[in-house]
Structures are given as C-alpha cells and as structure tokens.
Amino acid sequence: MKIMRGIVLSGLAVVTASAIAAPAYPQTAEEFYKGKTLTILVSAQSGSLTDFIARQFAQAYVKHIPGQPEAVVMNVVGAGGMVAAASLQSKQPKDGTVIGFLQRNNLYVPLVDPSQNAFDPREVAWIGSVDKTYYSLVAMTRSGVTTADDLFQKELVVGATGFSNENRTLPAVLNQYLGTKLTVVPGYTDRGEVYLAMERGEVDGWASTLDGLTYGEPKRMLAEDSMKVLLNLGWDSPEEFQDIPNLSQYVTDPEAKSILDFFILPFQAGRPLAAPKEVPQDRIDALRKAFDETVQDPEFIKAMTDQNYAVDPISGDEVAEIVATLFATPETELEAVRKILKP
Amino acid sequence: MEFLQDSVILSAAGDALGLILQPERIMFLWLGVIVGLAIGLLPGVGGLTGFAILVPFTYTMDPYSAFAMLLGMAAVTTTSDTIPAVLFGAAAQATVLDGLPMTKRGEAGRALSASYLANMMGGLIGAIILAVSLPVVRPFVLAIATPELLAMTILGIAMVATLSGKSPLKGLVVACFGILVGMVGTDTQTGQMRWTGGLLYLQDGLPMLPILLGLFALPELCDLAIQRTSIAQDMKFSPRQGMLQGIKDVARNWFLVLRCSSLGAVLGAIPGMTGSVVDWIAYGHALQTEKGAKESFTKGDVRGVIAPESANNARDGGSLVPMLAFGVPGGAAQAILLGALMVHGFTPGPDMLTKNLDLTYSMVWSIALANIFGAGTCFLLSGQFARISTLRYTLVLPIIMSIVYVGAFQGSRSWGDMYVLLIFGLIGWSMKRLRWPRPPLILGLVLGALIERYMSISFLRYGMDWALRPGVMVLLACAALIMFSPVLRLLRKENRAGVVLRRRPYLGLDDLAYGLFIAIGVYVLVTSRDWLFNARIGPVVVASTMVIAGGLSLIHKTFFKEVRAAATNGVHMDIGGDPEEELPRRLVLVRAARFYGWFVLFLLSMAVIGLLPTVPLVIMAFMRIEGREPWRLSAILAASVTLLLYIVFHRIIHVPWPTSLMGDWFPILREVVPSM
C-alpha cells in the first residue's frame, strides 16, 4: 500500500513538474505533437459518409503532422454541425490537440440566422477543405421533364430532406429567381428515401450532389436513361456532365446572380477543417502544411476513390477568403437569403 | 417458370450455406455474436456503435466473413438486452411489463429462458421470411408509398387504445404528451423551431435514449431503493427447471411466436419503425388476441414476454429488405452496412437479388445462425443470470445506476442528456406512482414524429386524395376498429352498470397530474399561435385532443366511481399492475427523494471532477452510506465498473466527455484523468 502511494505520488510530482515546466522553453510543433493525441471533432453521425471521410482523412493526416500524434475521431452531432463548431470555438483546448471537421453550412448559417451565433466562422483558423461540392438537378424520364428548358414550362415534383438542407433551398432559389416550376416536398429522412420515392413515382426528381450520382442506384438509373441530369447548379458544368447546361446560361439578373452566389460559394469548401484561433501560429502552420500534403497523398486519394469519392481540396487561406466574401454580403441580399432559409 | 425461379433461389441458398459454414467464417460470426451480446447489455451502446467499431476491421476480410461478423453482431444486440429488462426493469421494452413481475415472483430463470427461445425463434422466422420474400419483394415495397406508411403508423398508434389498459382516456392523454415531446425541435417541413428556447441542444429534438431510460429505468431503480430488498426474495426454480419451463412455455405458445415474428419482420421493413416500438405493438397484439390476456398481462404472464421478444429479433431480418432490394438503408446502422457492402465492391439494389444472390443469402444465413448462437448461449446461461435477481439492492443499484447515467449520456453526448434523464425520471416515477400508463407515451414519441412527417409529405404530394388510396382505406379502417374497441366495450350495458354517480364530487391531490397535462396542452396552444400554419397544425390537433381527453377523464373521475372489481375492464397497463406495497407514503417520498438526491449528487460531482471519476466515487459512497457494505467490496465493485465504462466508452468509442471545473482550473489534470 505504501509503495503504491509512493508510486502515485511520484507520478503526480512528475506530471505537475512537467506541467509547470512545459511553457518555460519554446517548443517546436514536432516536440509538441510527439506522443500526443490529435482529436478530430466530426460534426456528423458515426457511420455517415462524412464520418467515413473524416476517419480516412484522420489516419492519413497524422502521418504528415510533425511528431506523428495519434488520431482520435470524435462524433459531436447536433444542430446541423453547429454544436461541433461552437464546441471547437469555445469549449475545446486551444493548444492544437483538437481540430474540427466541420460542415460548409457553418460558414454562412451564423451570418443569416442570428440565433445560431454560438459559432463565428471568422474566429477560427481554417486549415483547408477536403472536397468541393457540386449539385445537379435530376428528374425521372417518365415525368416528361427531360431538359433544363422543360423546367420552365412543366411542373416537376422534387423531393428533399430537411428544410434547411441544400437539396431544399436550391430548388426554392430556382423557383424564386429563375422561375422554374418545381414543387418541393421536404420531409424524407435521407437520399435513400428520396430515391425510393422517385422509383415508386411519388416524386420525380431532386437536387443531388454530384458524388451521389456516381455510384449505386442513381448511376444505374442514369445509365439506363430512366433518370436524366437536367441542370448543373453551378456557374460551370463539371466534367461528368459537361454537355448539360448550368446556371450561367439561365441567370442574367444581377440580383439573382448574387443571391445564387451566396448559396453556391460555400460549396467550394465542401468539408472544411478548422482549429481554434488561439492555437500557436507554428502549430497552425504545421497543421496547414500537413493538410496540403495529405490531400496529395496517393494512399489517401486511393482510399477515397475506392469509395467513389473524389478529393478536391482548397487551402485554409481559400476557406478564410470564402468566409470573408460571405460576410461582406450587403444586408439587403442577406434579407433575401433569409427569406429562403427561414420561414 | 416460377418453378425454375424457385430452384435458382434454393440453390443460391444452399450455396450460401456452404459458403458460410467455412470454419473461419463461422469463427468471425461467433466473434460478432460475442461483441453483440456484450453491447446489448449496456444501454446507450447499440448496433450502430457496434458497426462503427467493427467495420474498420472488415475492410481486409473477405465479404462473406465480413458480413457474417457484422450481421452476427447486429442480430443479437436485441437478445442480451433482455437481461437488464427482465432482471431490473431497467429498459423501455415491452418485455419489462411481464418480465419484471415474473422475476419478483422468483421466476427470472423461466422468464429469461422463455425470452431467449422466443428471440431465437423470432430471429429464425424473420430470416426465413426475408429469404422467401426477397426475390419478390421489390414490387411490394414499391407499392407502399408515403400515404400507406402514414396509414400504417396510424395503425400503430391506434394500439394506444389497447396499451392503455383500463384507462383509455388517460392513455390518450399520455400518448398526446409523447407526440408533443417528439415535436420539440426543428419542424422538417417549415424549418419552424418548436419550443427550442434558443438552445442548440433542442434543435434536433429531444434524444430518445435519455427519455426512455428516464421513463422506465430510473423509476424501477427508484422503487428498488424504496423497497430496500433484493428484486426477488427467493428462486422458485433451479436453473435447469427454469430452462425446462421456458422451453415448455414457448412450445405451448408456438402460434403466438409465429404471429409476432411475422409482425416484427413486416414492421421491420418499414423505414423509421425502430426497435423501441415494434415490441410494444407486438405486446398490444398479444394482449388483444390471446385468451385471458386482459386479466393476466402485466402481472407476470409469460406470453407477455414471448410476444415482444419474438417480434424484436424478427425485425432485424425485415429491416434488411429495403437495404438489399433498393440500396436504401433503414437507419444509420444500416448506412454503415451499406458502406461496407460498397467497400467490398457490391452495389446494393437489384444486383443483390440476381448477380449477388449467394452473398445475399449468406447474409440471411448469418442472421439465422447468429440467433441460434446468441440466444443459445444466453439460454444456457439463463439460470445463472437469474441469480443476479436475488442479490442485495446495495450491490445491484449503484452499478446499474452508474451504467444508466453513462448510457443516457450517449443520447447526444451533452449535459442536456443528463437533465432530460432527470426530468423524465421524475415524470416516469410520478406516472408510475399515480397510475398513469407509460407505454402509450413511447408509441406517441416514436410514431408521432413519423406521422407528422408522413402526413406533410402525403398532403403536399397528393392533397386530400391520399386517404382515398385502397391500401390506406383498409389500414385506416383497421386502425379505427382497434382505436374504438375500448369505447364500444365501455358503452356495453354490463360495463356501464359498474359505474355509479358519486354523492358529492371528489378531487384528490393525485388529480394534480390532470391539471399538469391539461396545462401543458394549453401552453402548447398558446405558444404555437404565431407559427406558420403547417408547423402549427400538428401540435394544435394533438394538444386539443390532450386537453379534451384529459378534461373528460377528470370529470369522469370527479363525479363517478367504480363499484365493481376492475377485472372486467382490463388491467392497469404498467409495471407493478396492482401494487401490494404497504410502506407509508411519507417514507416512500423520503426514500424517493434520497434516490434522486444521489442522482443530483452524481451530476454535481460530474460537473466538478468529470463523469468517469464520479462513477467510482458515487458507487463507493452509495455502498458505504446506504448499505454499510465493507470497504473492500465497495472498492472492488467501484473499480470494476469504472474500468468497464472507461474501456468501452473512453478507449473504444471515444466519447467526447463534457469538460469539468477541475479540468478547467487545472488543464494538466485533463491529460491524466479521462473525462475531466
């Protein structure tokens, strides 16, 4: 018993001593991260696509960080990623041992919804974003709406998930500013339910991410022509659907253009990573450098492509630029955006 | 042609059996089963977590072994969770209603073995139904559109009438309360925030887990603390006798097992029908159709254990239908399974029923074998498990309490979960004591959210025409029949004769509960006034129903009284149907306050020193103060439980713990002590 106490006490002494000693000499990022754990907060449910990407990323990422810390992925779910983002900004350690794998709506929701101000995207250090997101509007061929032009002539019932999800807001913007005749039916739990509804004829289309069209049922449906891509919801068309029209052919009104821009710009930062801004600059630099290396890492890229998922990164500075652009949006435009996002 | 089709399927099923019976695949299946059984014992760690833990290991395995392990795990989590339900009532499953009274009678061995056998049969029947229906299931699933799903959910909620026992109006009030609780959060159709009070925590709605643990587990533990005895005073059966009796029980009720398994498999195929309601619907079905059930259920009738348990495991088979046939995962856990399928190069959807039929059938076999392994293991051990029920309460209580607290925290891993657990713990205990049936609350909570979602889609898409679809009309007619059968029964002459007018109106202290529910209804009506119509219509309809039903029930209670034995009108639908307790009311309240006091103490300590360090502290304190247990025993128990929670939640699942004051003051401690 006495021996035990001795061990515990001396252990405590060592710990306290090193705690006091730690800030006394300047420490390189490598010395700091050596033997430590890097916790990555993921704002998505374990088992979701985002969680999968985060876990793959985490494994590759720590190999590029000097000192090679151990990676731990923690799922902090809630309020469309806002819980994780707010936690990162205010509650987590600010020494660089915790970073966040956030969602793109974290970039603009605090701006348009004052009740969501627990997170300020200008108050974190952005590390980078793993991919860009593209949306395309697809429709079942049987609906008779088979080209982008048809969207303005015929009605089309499209499914959507949550009210604030992009797959609901984008069609709403199209109706409002382009004059498409979409009836949006939100309330499906996930993309699977929407496709099931499409197959049984309950809805005839929806705004899908490009990734979502490259595998599984949607891929098959596109191949056998029972479903068609009508319109790319961006200013240019992605490689896969190069000959399908995009928004630039339909949007001329400057107001509509800037409103659409507000919704489309965050897609550039599809899955952004951030660290608390109080983290010492040399560690931020190390984290950014490691990010830039990871997204070039052939092993990581292969793991991603095996899941039909393309790495399409931007740097931390670029994410910060997007945030700055969004926050420079004039108030009148924000009001228009709010009308789409909020009832 | 059809014959040809059959032979293709049979040979695929045969090939698949050959594939799965390879020694190393069987070994992986076993491994999955062991993990699944362990997971089932801990509240808050479900199949979803199991998948998340196991999936990374499967990337390098061959697909048959991978899915044998994953499905083996998933198939048995609903098997071992019977132990906390039957032995302590610490679960929100229908099995509790009859399982716990059986345990109290000393029949835990019988209850456990019967439920494991029912589990196994249910799992097997579910697998058979899956196997037979898979090739033809696509058109069937495509024929079910949202209006039909809506009608099915309404049918489910009509079970409230049955699950309210002899107090249908009270049951309706409680169900409405459950629906309203489920409406807290962001409305999917309009984005309207409903009663979130600006809290991030409430935006996604209240998490189910702490509500269910609060409503069912805490009140049972509280009553254990009040009774201050072991759960069962003595054992009626030896382990062997208990097992034999369980076998006999299941054999005698084979038709019930068959019905409830089929029900479970069909309900399982509907997305959104979670495990927490399928068992209640099966229980309601048994209650309605079994002879004499209306008198003996909730008092320790073994059929009340068999029905929900067979439905429970059958559900797993059914829930694979949408995923295999359409590539549509029925929930987050299956989304992981779907991801794993794709990692191995399979495309879920029609291919699974043609090109990859052997893999599909190997999955069916895995489920079947896992049920045999899992339930078989538990069955053999049931007699040993049963002995736990005779342990001193000072040993059992602190352990289960800590596990329930940490389990509830998994709801959304936030402080809010602990408050929700506390609040619903108090609500649940009050309801139990004041004899308000709790099962309708679960139906309301789970199905209410589905109904509102399906209804909004149905109206948006089909207008009023949704109700005119033939399938919908049939289902709604059935729902009406179930819903109004208690009313019809009440209106019958012989039952009316049992009620007489009181000489003078009577209102007791207990009736405050009515006031509370009616007040909640009125609050809802007032606060929702300014909302968008579509966000308001649901809450307004439900709250109005709640106020009217509550008012009618209160008037009835104030002016009429029952003079005849309640037996003719059914049972009180809750645990401890008819309490035989003789403790004075004051003592009960003092001890209940003490029990919840321990919880509050736990929360305070958690805020100061963190969740995990609190566990051993509170266990030791409880055992020393409440039970005067020896230091040594207290220390060993406290250390074991803490170690278990530490390994599972900290090392394996990596739970983000809340920060504590000590950790804030001395950040260095955070690196040494987990969760501080």
UniProtKB/TrEMBL annotation, chain A:
<dbReference type="InterPro" id="IPR042100">
    <property type="entry name" value="Bug_dom1"/>
</dbReference>
<dbReference type="InterPro" id="IPR005064">
    <property type="entry name" value="BUG"/>
</dbReference>
<feature type="signal peptide">
    <location>
        <begin position="1"/>
        <end position="21"/>
    </location>
</feature>
<comment type="similarity">
    <text>Belongs to the UPF0065 (bug) family.</text>
</comment>
<protein>
    <submittedName>
        <fullName>Uncharacterized protein UPF0065</fullName>
    </submittedName>
</protein>
<keyword id="KW-0732">Signal</keyword>
Automatic annotation (TrEMBL), chain B:
<keyword id="KW-0812">Transmembrane</keyword>
<dbReference type="Pfam" id="PF07331">
    <property type="entry name" value="TctB"/>
</dbReference>
<feature type="transmembrane region" description="Helical">
    <location>
        <begin position="363"/>
        <end position="381"/>
    </location>
</feature>
<feature type="transmembrane region" description="Helical">
    <location>
        <begin position="595"/>
        <end position="619"/>
    </location>
</feature>
<dbReference type="Pfam" id="PF01970">
    <property type="entry name" value="TctA"/>
</dbReference>
<feature type="domain" description="DUF1468">
    <location>
        <begin position="516"/>
        <end position="658"/>
    </location>
</feature>
<dbReference type="InterPro" id="IPR002823">
    <property type="entry name" value="DUF112_TM"/>
</dbReference>
<feature type="transmembrane region" description="Helical">
    <location>
        <begin position="441"/>
        <end position="460"/>
    </location>
</feature>
<feature type="transmembrane region" description="Helical">
    <location>
        <begin position="111"/>
        <end position="134"/>
    </location>
</feature>
<feature type="transmembrane region" description="Helical">
    <location>
        <begin position="631"/>
        <end position="649"/>
    </location>
</feature>
<feature type="transmembrane region" description="Helical">
    <location>
        <begin position="66"/>
        <end position="90"/>
    </location>
</feature>
<protein>
    <recommendedName>
        <fullName>Tripartite tricarboxylate transporter permease</fullName>
    </recommendedName>
</protein>
<feature type="transmembrane region" description="Helical">
    <location>
        <begin position="418"/>
        <end position="434"/>
    </location>
</feature>
<feature type="transmembrane region" description="Helical">
    <location>
        <begin position="393"/>
        <end position="412"/>
    </location>
</feature>
<feature type="domain" description="DUF112">
    <location>
        <begin position="26"/>
        <end position="443"/>
    </location>
</feature>
<feature type="transmembrane region" description="Helical">
    <location>
        <begin position="169"/>
        <end position="186"/>
    </location>
</feature>
<feature type="transmembrane region" description="Helical">
    <location>
        <begin position="537"/>
        <end position="555"/>
    </location>
</feature>
<feature type="transmembrane region" description="Helical">
    <location>
        <begin position="28"/>
        <end position="54"/>
    </location>
</feature>
<feature type="transmembrane region" description="Helical">
    <location>
        <begin position="320"/>
        <end position="343"/>
    </location>
</feature>
<feature type="transmembrane region" description="Helical">
    <location>
        <begin position="512"/>
        <end position="531"/>
    </location>
</feature>
<dbReference type="InterPro" id="IPR009936">
    <property type="entry name" value="DUF1468"/>
</dbReference>
<feature type="transmembrane region" description="Helical">
    <location>
        <begin position="140"/>
        <end position="162"/>
    </location>
</feature>
